[in-house]
Design a protein that fits this description.
Blueprint lengths: L1 H12 L5 E5 L3 H9 L7 H12 L8 E6 L1 H4 L9 H7 L3 E5 L4 E4 L2 E7 L5 H10 L4 E8 L8 H20 L3 E8 L7 H21 L8 E2 L16 H15 L6 E4 L6 H13 L6 E6 L1 H11 L6 H18 L7 H4 L2
Helix pairs in contact: 7-8, 8-9, 9-10, 10-11, 10-12, 11-12
């Protein structure tokens, strides 16, 4: 019975033409976002911004789920409706970010390991009671000349699988997010090599810890050139390399893959997803779980002003619609200039 609930939720999150809004910025990250538009990061302003996103009319046509930060899970909309209830009423599944962030890895302090397993079973019980039906945990893998080490890959894969097993025990679908960062000067070939090793380790650990693959989603990076790399791979090359890597390592039992945008521009993240979906059916559905790439235009349009809410909602709806089209392989650049 529990297995079927997990499978049904995972499939609902992968509904055709829909993806996931990552609105789970930690207190530090949302402060940076609000600082960028000159808005103070108070609880009231954070609530107002999330309220703007969640009450956007029509977004439910393209958004299947929203990942919330712990603070947001327990906040209410302007009309007093708890955010999880507001989303559920629109047919959007509420989720929750459960990790406690990446910290320096003991013995290899230039690398990171994600913390938050202590007390996670109890927290998951509280989150489920508050309405969360899926969760997210992000592992961070950096590429440099001597990184990542096998040690770093292994401890992050182990933690991701521990988290996933605890989620499924609580009836919550885990989104497993091993992110290979794109900040370096590495080539796309090096990114593919590292991503391959990371996914291999992650699925080995998931199997060891008896995680039900049909009741989870994968949230990986795309295989892409590092930001500092002088030779940037084109859209088709990124799509081909990403699919080659995923087909090599991700079992067909996984119902869906929701990509992170990883610092790509809004339009490039959409174009990459579209290109992959145009390359024919894959063993798993391919969609998005974007944060900044869905929100950036809305944030710029809003700037903390109540009068700007309609314009900000239009900007968010446009990005949701365009990414929904990319999830079907039906996006084209002309949609960016359309009103």
């Amino acid at each position: 019975m529990q297995h079927q609930v997990l499978i049904n939720t995972a499939r609902s999150l992968m509904a055709p033409g829909k993806g996931i809004l990552a609105a789970d910025e930690s207190t530090g990250t949302i402060k940076k976002r609000l600082d960028s538009i000159g808005v103070e990061s108070t609880e009231q302003n954070r609530q107002a911004y999330r309220n703007l996103l969640f009450t956007t009319a029509g977004a439910e046509e393209f958004i299947s789920g929203v990942i919330l930060f712990q603070e947001t899970l327990f906040q209410k909309a302007d009309d007093g409706t708890p955010f999880p209830d507001l989303l559920t009423d629109k047919g959007i599944i509420p989720g929750i970010k459960v990790d406690m962030g990446a910290k320096p890895l003991a013995g290899s302090p230039e690398e990171k390991v994600t913390e938050g397993l202590d007390g996670l079973r109890e927290r998951l019980s509280d989150y489920a009671a508050a309405g969360a039906r899926f969760a997210k945990w992000r592992g961070v893998i950096d590429i440099a000349e001597d990184r990542p080490t096998d040690y770093c890959i292994h401890v992050n894969a182990h933690a991701l699988a521990r988290y996933a097993a605890l989620c499924q025990e609580a009836g919550i679908v885990p989104i497993v997010e091993p992110e290979v960062l794109m900040d370096g000067a590495n080539s796309i070939e090096r990114c593919e090599q590292v991503t391959d090793a990371v996914l291999d380790a992650v699925f080995t650990e998931l199997k060891r810890q008896n995680v039900l693959l049909e009741g989870m989603l994968l949230k990986p990076n795309m295989v892409i050139s590092g930001k500092q790399c002088p030779q940037q791979a084109g859209v088709e090359e990124v799509a081909r390399a990403t699919l080659r890597c995923l087909n090599r390592r991700v079992p067909a039992a996984v119902p869906g893959i929701v990509f992170l945008s990883g610092g790509q521009s809004d339009e490039l993240a959409t174009a990459h997803l579209d290109a992959m979906n145009r390359m024919g059916p894959q063993p798993w559905a391919l969609s998005f779980s974007y944060g900044r790439a869905l929100q950036a235009p809305a944030l710029q349009a809003w700037r903390g002003q109540a009068d700007n809410v309609p314009a900000a909602q239009q900007a968010f709806l446009k990005r949701a619609r365009n990414n929904g089209a990319a999830a079907r392989g039906e996006y084209n650049a002309d949609m960016e200039s359309a009103a």
